[in-house]
Write a structure and sequence with these properties.
alpha/beta, Purple Acid Phosphatase, chain A, domain 2, 10-stranded mixed β-sheet, 6-stranded mixed β-sheet, globular, Capsule_synth_CapA, Metallo-depent_PP-like
Length: 339
């Protein structure tokens, strides 16, 4: 039986989400998708906030938004959903300076949630998150090892260096030698864990853009050439099309999964998918399932029939230039990956 690994777009638990959670159950933020999340064999998210009550707002450069969530509820909420890995290379992990970033790292480590893309130094930020999927049933059963490397091209002032905490920042340019060296180093560290599946989680590009630029497509193909099996993109707040290159799915942007953001009536940044990758026990990718979701009341829910239909139409249209075809399974779309 195939193992199912879930991927989501941005999970922002601060501001109004944080306020709302003070008067509702820890797992309420997951709304009607909670059971779907719990049924997965593993779950990887982009955590778009700090987990802390400490720190001061970043003022060294202009930052209009600052996101952090109280770890007293946020960490149990991540545990309730079965989150196994967090990508932290993004433009909000340092919103409340180093103290809040350090709290975030500590809280995730204490909870046993793997993380990548940020750390005390660039050396730590380049370390992969390694998640064991399945196994644990005794006998000779062994899990599928998934290594996740996380990078961002957002907010260069948040970049870690040899002595300062921050993110694994890169320029999205496959011809840039510094980028190539940094990415290759991270991928090599991931390979040293002997993973069955290698994932690159990228927080790239500007907000509210519906199509990836050609430079991102070229970079994605270069990552596949470098041995990456899955590309998990996010940052735009709206989902973008999916491309399959040499059997590797490239999710250019997974959109938003849960937040408190104002909704654009045309781009519908409140609508996206839970992306579920089916993987055989030997690491062979079988298919990618897209289960429609929508945000309401600072929580994520299964999409209404109308919202689901809109998201399916839009995903088909956005993916058509890449030659990606979908099958329909109930409310979901499915991309076959087996050759």
């Amino acid at each position: 039986m195939a193992l199912r690994i879930g991927f989501t777009g941005d999970v922002m638990l601060g501001r109004l989400v944080d306020d709302r959670q003070r008067s509702r159950s820890v797992d309420a933020v997951w709304g009607t998708v909670l059971e779907r999340l719990r049924e997965l064999d593993a779950l990887v998210i982009n955590l778009e906030c700090a987990l802390s009550t400490r720190g001061k707002k970043w003022r060294r450069t202009r930052r209009p938004f600052h996101f952090r969530a109280n770890p007293d509820w946020a960490v149990p909420a991540l545990e309730a959903a079965g989150v196994d890995g967090c990508a932290l290379a993004n433009n909000h992990v340092l919103d409340y300076e180093e103290a809040a970033l350090r709290d975030t790292l500590e809280h995730l480590d204490t909870a046993g949630i793997e993380r990548s893309g940020a750390g005390e130094t660039i050396d730590e930020a380049l370390e992969p998150a390694v998640v064991t999927v399945g196994g644990g049933d005794g006998g000779d059963a062994h899990g599928l090892e998934v290594a996740v490397c996380s990078f961002t091209d957002n907010t260069p002032e948040y970049a870690a260096d040899a002595t300062s905490p921050g993110t694994a920042w890169i320029e999205i340019d496959r011809e840039n030698e510094e980028t190539r060296e940094r990415v290759r180093e991270a991928l090599e560290r991931a390979r040293e864990t002997d993973p069955d599946l290698l994932v690159a989680s990228l927080h790239w590009g500007p907000n509210m853009v519906t199509e990836p630029p050609e430079s991102f497509r070229a970079f994605g193909r270069w990552l596949v050439e470098a041995g990456v099996d899955v590309i998990h993109g996010h940052s735009a707040h709206v989902f973008q099309g999916i491309e399959v290159d040499e059997g590797a799915p490239i999710l250019y942007d997974a959109g938003d999964f849960v937040d408190d953001y104002a909704v654009d009536d045309d781009l519908r940044n409140d609508r996206s998918f839970l992306f579920v990758l089916a993987v055989a026990s030997d690491g062979t990718l079988e298919d990618l399932r897209l289960e429609p979701t929508e945000i309401d009341g600072c929580a994520v829910h299964e999409a209404s029939p109308d919202a689901a239909a809109w998201s399916r139409r839009r995903m088909r249209a956005l993916s058509e230039p890449f030659g990606t075809t979908f099958e329909r399974d109930g409310e979901a779309l499915v991309v076959p990956l087996e050759s």
